[in-house]
Amino acid sequence: MKNSEQFGISTAHYRQIAKAGASTSEISEEQYEQPDEVVRETNTTCRNVKDFVQAQVEEALDKHEKWKQTAKNRTLKKRWTERIAAKH
Q1: pLDDT surpasses 70 at 7
Q2: Which residues have C-beta within 8 Å of that of residue 14, sequence separation ≥ 6?
Q3: Residue 2 contacts by C-beta under 8 Å, 6 or more apart in sequence?
């Protein structure tokens, strides 16, 4: 059970997240701390779960952006090829 000071910090942190337009995910303190230890022990690029999750999200967004660009390029190439073929 959290004491009133921890609750106040959590409330302030939640308000800060809400103002930033970010979302939260519910997880128990035990579930959070256990993977935190695992990440520190096994993943040299991340110091904790927060860093790990953020890195995963950034990687997924980067991959998606590259995928969108590749799909856009394929579409443009296909349209260009179809226009050239239609002229001949």
Answers
A1: no
A2: 24
A3: 10
DSSP label at residue 70: H
Residue type, 54: Q
Q: pTM for this one? A: 0.52
Quote the crossing angle between the two packed helices 49-87 and 29-42, to the nearest 10°.
70
Token duo for residue 32: 């959070």
Coil, helix or strand at residue 1: coil
Find out whether 39 and 49 touch, Cβ atoms under 8 Å: yes
Residue carrying structure tokens 């953020």: 54
CB-based contacts of 19, cutoff 8 Å, min separation 6: none
Q: What SS3 class is residue 23?
A: coil
pLDDT digits (tens, 9 = 90+) for 29-63: 777 677 777 877 886 678 887 888 888 899 999 99
